[in-house]
């Protein structure tokens, strides 16, 4: 072994941390090499000087101070655990409340539905208001009965959407909402036909080009003064109006 | 191992909040723990602070002890880390007169009456002061391993445990540290 190699091993040699074979090599070298022996001597001196430093004693007050600190720590632990528990419980409570609230809101919406449907049907409300306005003398009772009848008859939207496909038929044909000149002509004829009577225009449609179907609701009075309503259909064609039986 | 069983029982009780069990648990290691802290930080006040801080940490995190090392080793490791943290923090605020002040303090606190003759005590004192002065002049990384190896007597393996490095690293660090100490030792003499 050369000096460079030995120098690296002197420190672990002092601490007995070398393989037996290495130990022997270093020992042999140190016997003959003064420079390395010098290094060895200084390392040993430093090491033993540090080893011989006087013992440090733990101050007496340490135990009492530590005990105080431990008790304080326990208190803090308890408070923190309490806080954590509180937060957990209030979160659960909050979620629970939100759940109840949502269900309540949902129920509220559910019961509201029929009203909503009634509201969005302007046609119905429009039709309903007209006959009532037309006959202020009608008794409330009869009005109710007739209202019910009206509901069956008056509301074309509901009829077309739900119940009777045959009544729906003409409406599936070419429907025009706008009043063209021919239509105006037929309406005038209709007016003439029922000039002393009260009627309401329900709707109209084109059955085929230049053939108009017009539906009206005619109000009739019998001798007793009771009011009844009749739905009449007319076909307008070639400038003439025919009643459809 | 009987000692381990007793240790486990004490740890369990301490986790449940029994201070007395904790005090018994640390009885065998608190002296050495203080010694380590004192050598790292060089004065009683800081060493006491470090020790308190370490033991409170240990008390609060007892449930995290995984029994992989011995309990005492775990304690010493925490003390070493706490001291190194304190040293890093204090380095942000440099202190000029530190060396002289601490040598003086060391002298005051450390020299117990070991039954030596007066002349021997005097030589010892001087040697003590001198070697500690040299120790101050080398970097923390090297100082640390000499404290643990030569002053505290830990084995290379134990030091690897405390500093979380392998034995090869420990070996070379101690070797470098001694080389540096020799350089300073010679320089200071002149």
Q: How do the helices and strands line up, and which of them pair or pack?
A:
The complex is a heterodimer of chains A (245) and B (190).
Chain A: H1 3-14, H2 20-32, H3 34-51, H4 62-119, H5 122-134, H6 140-154, H7 156-161, H8 165-172, H9 181-193, E1 198-208, E2 211-221, E3 227-237, E4 240-244
Antiparallel strand pairs in A: 1-2, 2-3, 3-4
Helix pairs in contact in A: 1-2, 1-3, 2-3, 5-6
Chain B: H1 2-15, H2 19-26, H3 30-41, H4 44-60, H5 71-91, H6 98-110, H7 118-137, H8 140-151, H9 156-163, H10 167-189
Radius of gyration of chain A: 54 Å
Strand order of the largest sheet of chain A: 1-2-3-4
Q: Looking at the chains present, what oligomeric state does this protein adopt?
A: heterodimer
The ordered H/E elements of chain B are: HHHHHHHHHH
Give the CA-based shape of chain A. rod-shaped
Q: Based on helices, strands and strand pairing, what is the structural class of chain A?
A: alpha+beta
Tally the helices of chain A: what do you get? 9
Mean pLDDT of chain A: 77
User: What pair of chains forms the biggest interface?
Assistant: A-B, 34 and 45 residues
**How many E strands of chain B?**
0
How far apart the termini of chain B lie comes to 54 Å
Strand content of chain A: 15-25%
Q: How would you spell out the order of helices and strands of chain A? A: HHHHHHHHHEEEE
Mean pLDDT across all residues of chain B, rounded?
85
Count of helices of chain B? 10
Apparent shape of chain B: elongated
- Which regions of chain B contain 5 or more consecutive residues with pLDDT less than 50? 97-115
Main sheet of chain B? none
* Helix percent band of chain B: over 70%
């Amino acid at each position: 072994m050369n000096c460079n190699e030995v120098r690296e091993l002197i420190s672990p040699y002092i601490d007995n941390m070398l393989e037996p074979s290495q130990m022997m090599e270093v020992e042999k070298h140190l016997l003959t090499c003064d420079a390395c022996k010098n290094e060895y001597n200084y390392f040993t001196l430093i090491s033993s000087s540090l080893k011989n430093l006087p013992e440090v004693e733990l101050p007496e007050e340490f135990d009492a101070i530590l005990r105080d600190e431990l008790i304080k720590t326990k208190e803090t632990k308890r408070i923190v655990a309490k806080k954590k528990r509180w937060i957990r419980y209030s979160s659960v409570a909050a979620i629970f409340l939100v759940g109840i609230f949502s269900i309540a809101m949902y129920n509220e919406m559910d019961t509201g539905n029929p009203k909503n449907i009634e509201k969005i049907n302007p046609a119905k409300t429009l039709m309903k208001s007209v006959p009532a306005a037309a006959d202020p003398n009608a008794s409330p009772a009869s009005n109710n009965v007739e209202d019910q009848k009206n509901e069956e008859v008056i509301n074309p939207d509901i009829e077309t959407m739900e119940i009777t496909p045959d009544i729906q038929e003409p409406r599936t044909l070419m429907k025009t909402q706008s009043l063209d000149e021919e239509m105006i002509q037929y309406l005038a004829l209709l007016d003439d036909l029922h000039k002393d009577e009260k009627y309401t225009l329900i709707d109209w449609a084109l059955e085929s080009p230049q053939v108009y179907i017009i539906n009206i609701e005619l109000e009739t009075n019998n001798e007793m003064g009771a009011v009844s309503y009749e739905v009449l259909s007319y076909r307008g064609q070639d400038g003439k109006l025919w009643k459809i039986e | 191992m009987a000692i381990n069983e007793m240790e486990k029982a004490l740890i369990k009780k301490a986790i449940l909040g029994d201070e007395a069990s904790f005090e018994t648990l640390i009885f065998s290691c608190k002296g050495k723990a203080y010694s380590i802290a004192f050598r790292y930080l060089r004065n009683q006040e800081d060493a006491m602070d470090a020790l308190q801080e370490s033991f409170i940490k240990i008390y609060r995190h007892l449930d995290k002890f995984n029994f992989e090392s011995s309990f005492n080793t775990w304690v010493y490791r925490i003390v070493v880390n706490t001291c190194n943290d304190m040293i890093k923090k204090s380095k942000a605020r440099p202190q000029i007169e530190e060396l002289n002040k601490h040598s003086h303090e060391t002298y005051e606190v450390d020299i117990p009456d070991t039954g030596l003759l007066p002349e021997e005590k005097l030589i010892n004192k001087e040697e003590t002061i001198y070697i500690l002065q040299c120790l101050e002049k080398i970097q923390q990384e090297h100082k640390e391993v000499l404290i643990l190896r030569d002053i505290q007597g830990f084995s290379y393996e134990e030091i690897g445990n405390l500093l979380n490095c392998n034995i090869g690293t420990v070996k070379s660090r101690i070797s470098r540290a001694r080389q540096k100490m020799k350089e300073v030792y010679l320089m200071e003499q002149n």
